[in-house]
């Protein structure tokens, strides 16, 4: 998050990907959409997240795209499906459809994944607070995002602890299923107990106070943010006009 | 001048048949340091919750009797006011971390943020608090990477930053090592010097003898002893009610008993040494 | 029990949301490690909806998908499935379906149908119709919804879907029974699950 892009105000980056997403959905054809991943890959070079981006994108999106492609082209029955073998047939409509679908998914996911890699949760929540999102909402977002990785790590510890207590994790399905509750149970019960204490502790920190929340942490919208946002808005207007005319 | 006043207060948790607090009456005066002692389940935490207003608001149940702060019933204050008037620190360092801040400085500022304090003032007050509690080394660390003792100190800072007049500390050292305990009691000393009213729930009786002005002994939900520290902690009856006496006091009580002496009972090692020197 | 969204989102209920999301995530990890043949990824949503009500359950479901969606945006689309599970389960809890075994099994069935239907609609919208084809889209969605309903009743989807739901609901219920009464009393939707009914009178 130390790159120039990382330092941009969150709503700037959000405007940008929103523009990309809208354009990806409504622009006909598929070349524009397929170009989005390379575009964001290049952007991620500038934001220092290139490798991370590539890894994340290819491991999650690629499979889905290939799957949909295969299903639409070869399996779903359209009017022009010419049978090749058993239930597999080739359809031109299917090909067109799948190009349309997969390219859009590729584009939208490319944009969203890039966004979350270059925008820290802290900055996002700060921007939301400043935009007057409800206090309770920003609290839930940030406390959930913070808690989940901790819990994953904790569950690995509990898993080992229970294993050493003799809970069987290998064997028949029944055996394995019986292990589920003893593994999950203690985690949940201790979380619940902490919840009560946490509620009181938060009340002691004026959580329920109705005033507008201020923030020690601060990031500012800079001129470059305003410029980019104006450009995005202009591009959006131009896009709408172009779509209506063409 | 009375700060807090309880009169004939009884309380029963929802679904319980017995009162956990029975007909309790006492006054808390401004600027003094009070210790609540007694066995576990004698009702000490419950009393603290009642003073702070968590009972009945959070815990529900049946509360009878009158609880007044500066002459007004506790229920007249809304939760926000009570937060700024009474700082409350809990036993578990971990659950006092807000879970939404990634550095100590912001963790301390959190209460001020919620109160809507302007940023410049916040920065001043947080820096002052960090200096006061010697947290400079921790200021930029992630709260979750701190030790228990460090978390507890940060939690205290986070609560004291709102400058409450009354501070309730519920077993703040129970999960700490001796060094951590020492640090907490240094803070108690500091609060005393600032003229704050301190209510301390503790088991470490030797430290209570050293730092507190008055002791309230609870047994089974009843207030059985209430007096200056020198009166209560030299009275062997404390032991019958689930309380403890400082080691030094016990030694002198036993010595008096065995050798038929009538020496005054000191509470701390320093007092004993001074006493012995005078005796010679 | 007062109704109203704002009342549902008490501080305690709010704190249950991250707990629910963590449960769902850990549940999923566990079911993977233990090599279950089905995905158990809604356990937190169901559990929290039982004691927090429909809206808190909905947000729990949503947040679960948001957290996953940051890594794989397809999860964002399927948030609707989690949300409907949380919402419906919360209402069922309010209507006391979970207080007896028949209601609980019926709940599993209803939840399974809801989630299968919504999943089908989402799939059509996301994977079948993002070509901007207007009215075709709506027709396709309705067909999908209806088709999914019928299909999930008559096919193997019923078994796998129900199995997952039964585990989600069953395990939630087991853990629910272990919650102390004192805690349940503080929750807006916890009353039906309090064990010591005599003391309530």
TrEMBL record, chain A:
UniProt keyword terms in alphabetical order: Cell membrane, Membrane, Transmembrane, Transmembrane helix
Signal peptide annotation: none
Highest taxon, organism lineage: Bacteria
Keyword Membrane: yes
UniProt subcellular location: Membrane
InterPro entries on file: ABC/ECF_trnsptr_transmembrane (IPR003339), ECF_transporter_component (IPR051611)
Membrane topology term: Multi-pass membrane protein
Cellular component aspect of the GO annotation: plasma membrane
Primary subcellular site in the record, as a coarse category: membrane
Pfam families to which the protein is assigned, alphabetical: CbiQ
TM spans (from-to): 12-29, 35-54, 61-78, 84-116, 137-159, 226-245
Name assigned to this protein: Energy-coupling factor transporter transmembrane protein EcfT
TrEMBL record, chain B:
InterPro entries hit by this protein: AAA+_ATPase, ABC_transporter-like_ATP-bd, ABC_transporter-like_CS, ABC_transpr_CbiO/EcfA_su, ECF_ABC_transporter_ATP-bd, P-loop_NTPase
Keywords: ATP-binding, Cell membrane, Membrane, Nucleotide-binding, Translocase, Transport
Record SUPFAM superfamilies: P-loop containing nucleoside triphosphate hydrolases (SSF52540)
Gene Ontology terms for molecular function: ATP binding; ATP hydrolysis activity; ATPase-coupled transmembrane transporter activity
Places the protein is found: Cell membrane
GO cellular component term of the entry, any: ATP-binding cassette (ABC) transporter complex
Keyword Acetylation tagged: no
Gene3D superfamilies associated with the record: P-loop containing nucleotide triphosphate hydrolases
Membrane topology label: Peripheral membrane protein
PROSITE patterns named among the record's database cross-references: ABC_TRANSPORTER_1 (PS00211), ABC_TRANSPORTER_2 (PS50893)
Pfam families: ABC_tran (PF00005)
Top-level taxonomic group: Bacteria
Domain ABC transporter: 4-245
Protein name according to UniProt: ATP-binding cassette domain-containing protein
Native source organism of the sequence: Bifidobacterium aerophilum
Automatic annotation (TrEMBL), chain C:
Membrane-spanning ranges: 43-64, 76-95, 101-127, 158-176
Domain of life: Bacteria
Keyword terms of this UniProt record: Membrane, Transmembrane, Transmembrane helix
Protein name: ECF transporter S component
Organism of provenance: Bifidobacterium aerophilum
């Amino acid at each position: 998050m130390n790159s120039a892009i990382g330092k941009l105000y969150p709503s700037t980056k959000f405007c940008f990907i929103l523009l990309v997403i809208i354009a990806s959905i409504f622009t006909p054809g598929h070349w524009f959409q397929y170009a989005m991943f390379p575009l964001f890959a290049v952007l991620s070079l500038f934001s220092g997240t290139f490798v991370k981006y590539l890894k994340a994108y290819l491991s999650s999106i690629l499979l889905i795209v290939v799957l949909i492609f295969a299903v639409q082209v070869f399996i779903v029955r359209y009017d022009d499906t010419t049978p090749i073998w058993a239930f597999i047939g080739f359809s031109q409509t299917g090909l067109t459809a799948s190009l349309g679908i997969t390219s859009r998914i590729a584009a939208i996911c490319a944009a969203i994944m890039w966004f979350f890699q270059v925008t820290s949760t802290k900055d996002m929540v700060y921007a939301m607070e400043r935009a007057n999102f409800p206090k309770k909402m920003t609290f839930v977002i940030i406390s959930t995002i913070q808690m989940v990785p901790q819990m994953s790590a904790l569950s690995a510890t509990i898993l080992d602890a229970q294993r050493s207590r003799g809970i069987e994790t290998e064997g028949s399905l029944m055996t394995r299923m019986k292990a589920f509750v003893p593994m999950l149970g203690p985690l949940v019960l201790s979380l619940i107990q902490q919840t009560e204490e946490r509620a009181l502790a938060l009340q002691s920190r004026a959580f329920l106070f109705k005033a507008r929340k201020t923030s020690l942490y601060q990031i500012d919208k800079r001129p470059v943010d305003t410029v980019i946002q104006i450009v995005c808005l202009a591009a959006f207007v131009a896009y709408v006009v172009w779509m209506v005319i063409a | 001048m009375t700060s807090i006043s309880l009169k004939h207060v009884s309380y029963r948790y929802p679904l319980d048949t017995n009162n956990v607090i029975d007909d309790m009456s006492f006054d808390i005066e401004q600027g003094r340091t009070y210790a609540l002692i007694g066995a576990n389940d004698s009702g000490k935490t419950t009393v603290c919750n009642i003073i702070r207003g968590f009972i009945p608001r959070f815990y529900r149940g049946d509360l009878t009797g009158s609880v007044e702060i500066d002459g007004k019933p506790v229920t007249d204050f809304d939760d926000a006011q009570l937060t700024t008037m009474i700082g409350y620190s809990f036993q578990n360092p971990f659950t006092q971390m807000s879970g939404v801040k990634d550095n100590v400085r912001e963790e301390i500022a959190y209460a001020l943020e919620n109160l809507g304090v302007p940023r410049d003032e916040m920065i001043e007050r947080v820096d002052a608090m960090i200096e006061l509690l010697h947290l400079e080394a921790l200021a930029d660390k992630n709260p979750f990477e701190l030790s228990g003792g460090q978390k507890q100190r940060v939690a205290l800072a986070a609560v004291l930053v709102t400058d409450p007049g009354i501070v309730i500390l519920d077993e703040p050292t129970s999960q700490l090592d001796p060094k951590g305990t020492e640090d907490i009691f240094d803070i108690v000393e500091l609060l005393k010097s600032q003229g704050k009213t301190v209510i301390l729930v503790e088991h470490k009786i030797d430290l209570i003898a050293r730092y507190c002005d008055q002791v309230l002994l609870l047994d089974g939900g009843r207030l059985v002893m209430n007096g200056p520290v020198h009166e209560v902690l030299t009275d062997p009856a404390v032991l019958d009610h689930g309380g403890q006496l400082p080691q030094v006091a016990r030694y002198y009580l036993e010595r008096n008993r065995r050798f038929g002496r009538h020496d005054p009972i000191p509470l701390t090692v320093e007092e004993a040494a001074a006493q012995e020197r005078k005796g010679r | 029990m007062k109704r109203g969204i704002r009342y549902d989102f008490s501080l305690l209920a709010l704190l249950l949301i991250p707990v629910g999301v963590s449960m769902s995530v850990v549940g999923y990890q566990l079911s993977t490690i233990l090599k279950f043949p089905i995905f158990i990824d809604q356990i937190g949503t169901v559990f929290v909806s039982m004691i927090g009500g429909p809206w808190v359950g909905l947000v729990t479901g949503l947040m679960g998908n948001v957290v996953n969606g940051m890594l794989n945006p397809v999860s964002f689309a399927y948030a609707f499935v989690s949300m409907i599970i949380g919402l419906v389960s919360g209402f069922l809890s309010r209507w006391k379906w979970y207080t007896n075994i028949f209601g609980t099994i019926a709940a599993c069935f209803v939840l399974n149908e809801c989630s299968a239907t919504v999943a089908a609609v989402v799939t059509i919208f996301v994977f079948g119709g993002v070509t901007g084809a207007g009215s075709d889209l709506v027709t396709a969605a309705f067909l999908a919804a209806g088709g999914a309903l019928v299909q999930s009743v008559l096919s193997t989807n019923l078994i796998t879907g129900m199995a997952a739901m039964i585990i989600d609901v069953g395990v939630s219920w087991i853990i629910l029974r272990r919650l102390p009464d004192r805690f349940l009393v503080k929750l807006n939707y916890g009353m039906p699950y309090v064990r010591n009914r005599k003391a309530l009178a």
